[in-house]
């Protein structure tokens, strides 16, 4: 039995409901004919050669190229994917073991890491397939130092083996429109900015899971939004592009392994059918007790609630991000 067999598929009630024979049949959006996936990749023989062939087929499908061109479309990614098949960790294992890493070994990353993380990022869903994001990879120590200065001088930025700045990007689609003499007024609405932020975030998180699956450590950097205009200038972002979040990637320092940080109980975040404020209070109180213990284990006083409230106490705690609306407007991304 596979892991999937353990979870029986339930049919949604609407899928089995009889079609009404009287009255008006509700209008339905018809789906296009179901394309059948090519089975050639999955018929590859087992073993390293077979795994490499399968990985090449996956990369080729991701970029819409022939298998011969897979290595050109995403260099070294197929090899990395094939080698990763030997890793004993499942996706769920990687996700549940997540912890942010802020101490890295002074060891450069293999050249295959960046294209692999980008391939994983590009495999994330994207709103209407618009792919409204880009990513800037930074390894130059001088630029890292300048970026660190713009991002609250966090130590792990200055010494990062790799910093990825995920960018909300409507510049590309606007440039394509301009070349065709077409207007894209929908890029002037907040909805498009939100879509681009969502696209960039989903891509970034795919990269996090990929990095962790390869044994690497990561930490996000919301502080790329402390001074987004200055950072956009440093990265030479075109008008219509703005930093969303940074991601430091490196080999975790084993002398500082870090602990998994407990999250709220499911009873506090999971609501059935409708939202229930009252039901959250007891689970949150139980979490607070656990977090006081957690932070004490880290040599710190206090719990989660005080930290959350301090982080949200006002303009000072936003460190410049209170001006995000005007910064986005200045960068050519609509915020209303
Ligand atoms: C959008 C976002 C921005 C973040 N920005 C920072 C940051 O600027 N500096 C930092 O050290 N950690 C940052 N983090 C990491 C969080 O502090 C961390 O995820 C959180 O405390 C939970 O810990 P864990 O990731 O170890 O589970 C950020 C995380 C997210 C999702």
TrEMBL record:
SUPFAM superfamilies: FMN-dependent nitroreductase-like (SSF55469)
Keyword check for Flavoprotein: yes
One Pfam entry name: Nitroreductase
Start and end residues of each stretch annotated as Disordered: 1-50
Domain Nitroreductase, residue spans: 97-251
GO molecular function annotations of the record: oxidoreductase activity
Keyword line: Flavoprotein, FMN, Oxidoreductase
Family statement: Belongs to the flavin oxidoreductase frp family.
Protein name, per record: NADPH-dependent oxidoreductase
Species in which this protein is naturally found: Promicromonospora citrea
